[in-house]
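Hi R.,

Here's the chain you asked about this morning:
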Amino acid sequence: MTCAVTTVSGKVLKGVGKNLITRKRLSLGIWLPTMKFDKNVFQSFEYNISKAKALSRTHGYLKDIINGEEGNVAQILQQVLDSILELSGIKPIVADVQKKMQDAMVVRMEELGQEYLEERKDQLEQYLSEEVIPSLEKILGDLNLLIERVLLEQTIVTAVSAYETFWKDLLISLIGKNRSVEEKFFEILNKEVKYESIRDYDDVHEAMGEIVATTLRRTDMSELEKVYARIFGRDLHLLSTMDSDKLRKFFEIRHIIVHNAGHIDLKFKKRVGTGQKIGDLIELNKGFVDKCIVIMERSVDDCAKRIGYSRTRPKHLRSKDK
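And the predicted structure, written out as C-alpha cells:
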C-alpha cells in the first residue's frame, strides 16, 4: 500500500511507503521527522527561564543602586519623574511649592531660636544613632547579601531547573505522542516497565515517556545529544564544544549550591578545575551566569526550529537581555 506525502514546499510525492514519516526541510538544510509534541513544553521553558533572567536583572538593579552607579535605577526613575512633570506642564508649579516650603521652614527655624534647635539636634542625633542607623545597617547588610550571593545563586538554580525540565518534558511529549519514538526506547522500556510504575497514569504512552526520562541524566549534555540523536536519527549538534563546557560548569555550580550550600568540594574541584580551595564559597560571576542563560535559550530555539516549532515569546515576557 502506498500514500502521497505533501512537502513543505507544496510538492506531492506519490508512491511513498505508508510507514514513511513526513519530513520538513529547514533553513539549516537538515531534514528531520515531523512529530507531534506538546507546545506547552516550549512555553513553560520561556516562562521559567524568564524568572531566572528577572533574578539576574534584579541583581544588577540592586548593585547599581547600592554602588551609586551612573544611570542606576534610582536615577532613571528620577529622570522619568522629571520628564512626566515637564511634559505635563506642572514642573514650574512643583518647583514653586518646594521654594515656598523651604522659605517657610527658614522662617519657622528663626522663630524657634538657636537654643531650641540645638536641643532638638541632640535629640535627633541620639534617635538616629540608637534607632535609625542600626536599622539602616541591617537593611544594607541584607541587600549586600542579596547582591553578593542570594540573587545569583537563585538565578543559577532557576535557570538549570528550567533547562532540565524542558528536555525532560520534551522527551516525555515526543515519546507519549509518537509511537515510532516510543519504539526506539524498547530496550529501556522492556527492562523498566512494571505495572506499579504505570497503573496511576491516565495515558500509558505518557507513562512510557516518564519512565525513559527517569533514566536520563538531564545535566549531561552529551547524554542528551545521544538521546535526541536516537529520536531524530542524526546528531543535532545543539551546542558547540565550548558552549557545552560552559553549561557543564554551570550545572556543577548549581549542584554545589543546592547540595553543599555553595562550598567547593573535592568532586567539584576535580570536575571543574577551579583554583579555589576546598571549602571555599564558589565565586559567582554575573557575566558568566547571563552567558549560560543565553546558551540555554539558543539551544532551545535551535531545537524548536529543527522540529518545526516557532518559539514566539509572549509580549509580557519579552525583555532585552541585560
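The chain has two domains: 1-34, 35-317.

Let me know if you need anything else.
M.
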